[in-house]
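Pipeline run #58 for the internal structure catalog. This entry was flagged by the ingest filter as a single-chain record with no existing model, so it goes straight to prediction. Upstream metadata was stripped on purpose; only the residue string is passed forward. Reviewer on rotation: M.T. Logging verbosity set to normal.
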Amino acid sequence: MTHPLVKQLRFARSEFVRGLEGVTPAEGLVRFEAMNSLGWTIGHLANQENFYWVYLAQGVTIAAELRRLVGTGRPASTPPLDEMWDAWREVTAAADTYLDTVTREQLTHHFPFSTSTWKENVGTLLLRNAYHYWYHLGEGMAVRQMLGHTDLPQFVGNMGALTPAPDED
């Protein structure tokens, strides 16, 4: 059974995708300083999932170029929208391999990292990742408005699938 925090992350992902539907490749390159381009934002979220759920959780390296292009603290860039969506889909599919296995007991687990363990546990990383999507979705909506988009998604979509079963918590 999928852990409720994983469901929340997946819901945040789906809202992120819904919020960026209709953005063209050319629009994905536009950068309104100090905000980043939408292509960057997609890649940036893929980079976080890649680090947490693919590298730390599974010890696998994919999409290694993301850190250089869109990692936290890196210089601004405007990577192609389609390439970033492709990377995001590849990373989230690989991440789901781990996320499908998360249990309540694993939430307090710390991943091995370097000569110690990663500073935050799995539960905190799940929340950080989901909240990161919401942060950048809001920024993405602002960028879309600045691009002149109208009829943008309103509020939060269908949350019915997030209702926990009686034995979940």
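catalog note: The mean pLDDT is 91.
catalog note: Residues 133 and 146 are 20 Å apart (CA to CA).
status: ready for reviewer M.T.
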